Amino acid sequence: MSAAAPRSMPQIGRSVLLLRASLIAGALYDVVFAVIMLTAPELPARLLQLPLPGPSFYLHLIAVLLTMLAAVYLMAAYDPIAYRGIVRVAIVGRFAGGVVLGLAAYRGQPALAGLWVVAIADFAFAFTHALFFAPLRRRLPAI
User: Fold this and answer.
1) d(Cα 61, Cα 46) in Å, to the nearest integer?
2) How far is CA 92 from the centre of its chain?
3) Long-range CB contacts for residues 20-25, cutoff 8 Å, separation at least 24
4) If residue 56 lies in a helix (H) or strand (E), which one and from where to where?
């Protein structure tokens, strides 16, 4: 073991804890949105000044998918090293979500401008996950 190894171990432990925290925060964000979509969809629509979709079926389906996503995030938070593939998907998925929502807000109708808030949140999660995953990624074998 090299002299640098003992100093890097606390960095790995801290990165794991911070990554876990960011994944749990992402899961909570998704679950809260899912619950609000089911119980009070007019609240985010009013706060973000977004139109509600026609049939409520679409919000219910999105709520189910967000809840499933949150469960997967919690699996990755439990052991980010073992579930590093999920962490990678979370980083790319949040970034892609930010791009899609940002483009919809930019190109869409003025009624979709509230999507900027959600796009920025997705970019923030992507950046945070990537930032805390980077020290781990450099020390892990590729999968």
Assistant:
1) 20
2) 9
3) 20/77, 20/78, 20/80, 22/125, 22/128, 22/129, 22/132, 23/73, 23/74, 23/76, 23/77, 23/80, 23/87, 23/90, 23/129, 24/73, 24/74, 24/77, 25/125, 25/128
4) none
Determine the residue type at 138. R
pTM of the full structure: 0.85
Whole-angstrom Cα distance, residue 31 to residue 13? 27
Give residue-wise pLDDT tens across range 52-101: 888 889 999 999 999 999 999 999 999 998 999 999 999 999 999 999 99
Q: Is the pLDDT of residue 121 over 90?
A: yes
